[in-house]
Specification:
The chain is mainly alpha-helical and 50 residues long. It is 58% helix and 0% strand. It is elongated.
């Protein structure tokens, strides 16, 4: 799921760069922060511990 969220964030950045270039970086940063996409995974990222 984490990889899918990273992909979503990347695609959102591409979309925003085309449609609202002046807001693209802020949009991606805010989404990443609010959805904790860049945050470390519980258990150090070991999928067996999730």
């Amino acid at each position: 799921m984490h990889d899918e969220l990273q992909g979503f964030l990347s695609l959102t950045g591409q979309w925003a760069a085309c449609h609202v270039p002046s807001l693209a970086a802020d949009l991606v940063a805010r989404l990443g922060e609010d959805l904790a996409i860049g945050a470390p995974l519980p258990g150090g990222g070991d999928p067996r511990l999730l």
